[in-house]
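Sample pair:
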Amino acid sequence: MTRPDPRQTAALSAALSRAVDLSALKARADAAKTPPPAAAGTSAAPTQGGAHAIDVTEAGFQAEVVERSLQIPVVVALVASWSAQSQQLVAVLEKLAAQDRGSWLLAKVDIELNPRVAQLFGVQAVPMVVAIAGGQPVDAFNDVPPEDRVRQWIDSILDALRDRLPGIRAAEAGEGAAAEEEPAPEPEDERFTTAEAAFDRGDFPAAETAYQAILDAEPGNTEAKAALAQVKFLARAQATDPSVIVRADISPDDVDAQLSAADLEVAGQQVEQAFARLIAAVRRSSGPERDKARTHLVSLFDLFAADDQRVAKARRDLASALF
């Protein structure tokens, strides 16, 4: 692998600095999180490297090469359409870029179509490859080395810059996540679809029947159990006369009135008041009436998440009332 003379690399760095506005770019490098959008004049023709290999023109050089190099290394391949060696090297670079899935970008420049870029890099022969990072050239070579040596060259650049360019680690982490095959989505359960459709149109009896059928077949189906509790509650609350709250307040020993009043209070987001009402009914009553109040309160608990603090407090208060 033939590298340019160090003086040539230094000259290239100076020329590149004059050609693009690096000071402004470096000032916002730390704040940059994603590569900027492609500038007008940049063509991204489909290649074997896909989104990781693009064709760059003079007009798009700053956006596609300099600015992107603040996030990941950009490997600039200066080539010519008439050069068989150029095509050979580009094929290798495209293959490696596709393998690395975004940890670096291959930017191909046809020097015949973009003579100012060729002049900027001082191209004397093609192909010429220059790695750009942080807006500056970091390494280059002029020949067509074997694929394994190009791979070593790419890896050495990534290793040297991994802690300096944020996009390298992000791309590598994304590659690992993409490599894990996502499980295929489970097919929709038609039984739930039927039940939910009935619920949505307000047909609570049909929804209750559908959810109950699921539980009959699968007693441990927690989703159906929770849905059935919601349906039964809403059906009760919708059918309850709001005046029952007045009756319950006037007749505290009327357990049935206390149950209906509690339903309306839960429906009206007065959850703690409803729980307190039923716990008081448990304390006042005995025998079947007491069990009725307790059972109704526990059924209301099923409407809420298990870690709901209101439910946790009410369970403690219920235990105190019972024992």
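The first strand starts at residue 53 and ends at 55.
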